Amino acid sequence: MLKSARKQSSASKQSKDPEGRMPLVEHLRELRNRMVKSLLAVLPLMVLALFFAKDIIEFVTDPVPQCTSELEAAAQEGRCAVLSQVGLTSPFTTFIKVSLITALVGAAPVWLYQMWAFLAPGLHNKEKKYALSTVAFGTPLFLTGAYLAYWVLPHAVPVLLSFSIDGSTNYITADDMIDISVKLTLAFGLAFQLPLILTLLNLGGVLSGRRMLSWWRGMVLGISIFAALVTPTDPLSMLVLALPIIGLYFAATAFALFNDRRKAKADPDTDLDDDEASDIDLTPSTIGGVSEVEGDDGRHGNANGTDRHRGGLDDAT
């Protein structure tokens, strides 16, 4: 029985569709297996992160200028805050949240690979190449944005606290700092994906370099407004986010213009609309002489099928 079962499993593996096609039930079963493998990678890291959760929380809350008491906060006129945790279960939930986020980040190579392994069989070779290129360029761009967010946060917190009312005391919880750190990191990291998205649209023929260049005023204004909304009111933080994205936008535009010029040289009709006729070459060309062919009976005739021995008449005449 075991041998027959092994033979059937090996036969099913050998009969797998090379293009990745399978029934819906098989797709759901594979999705379940991929999710289980990802979960098995996250859970051990989450348990391990629980032992270092306190250190991670201290690292996240380090940008907060802390006051030792309410009297010191009042004397500092709101330039520092009292770090607090409200509620009986708040320390425990904070530990769980920090451990889960740390585990998701640490296990990212595993669950990203499982996601790729699930999607890759349904992609063509060209689509796979684009997907791998996206990951190769998107990862360092995201990490660059995350690093800028880490640099901006210590400068942003004092600026936000400077708006406090005189004589008031600010209470900042660890959950607040974790939330703002995650949001700022995601905002910076995803914002740095803009040039990559524009480049992919150009490679796919959806967006031309000329159109991207014509948008530069609106893009500069939009990026500046986005940076002002995402970052605190500190002008330095806004410039730290806006200037690199604007530079990357113009770099993507330059790449798109170069790519369009390269495609135009390879295909002169690439810029034509779907309902626009291309130029037809009407230059006359010379036709070579008539070649002789040998019939089934061994007699020679010309390419038009007439027999020179029969005066150019075919069998029908």
Describe this structure in words.
With 317 residues, this protein is mostly helical. The chain is 63% helix and 4% strand. It has a two-stranded parallel ribbon. Strands 3-4 form a two-stranded antiparallel sheet. The longest helix has 37 residues, at 125-161. One of its GO terms (biological process) is protein transport by the Tat complex. It comes from Streptomyces tardus.
SSE layout:
Layout: H1 2-14, H2 24-50, H3 53-60, H4 70-75, E1 81-84, H5 90-106, H6 108-119, H7 125-161, E2 170-173, H8 174-191, H9 194-203, H10 209-214, H11 216-230, H12 235-266, E3 293-294, E4 300-301
Helix pairs in contact: 2-5, 2-6, 3-5, 7-8, 9-12, 11-12
Number of strands: 4
Shape: flat
Give the structural class.
mainly alpha
Largest sheet: 2 strands, parallel
Radius of gyration: 33 Å
Q: List the secondary-structure elements in sequence, H or E.
A: HHHHEHHHEHHHHHEE
User: How many helices?
Assistant: 12
- Poorly predicted runs: 9-14, 303-310
Percent helix, as a range, is 55-70%
Mean model confidence by pLDDT: 77
* Distance, first to last CA: 78 Å
- Proportion of β residues? under 5%
Q: Give the strand order, joined by hyphens, for the main sheet.
A: 1-2
Keywords: Cell membrane, Membrane, Protein transport, Translocation, Transmembrane, Transmembrane helix, Transport
Protein name: Sec-independent protein translocase protein TatC
Main location: membrane
Transmembrane segments: 35-53, 95-118, 130-153, 184-203, 215-232, 238-258
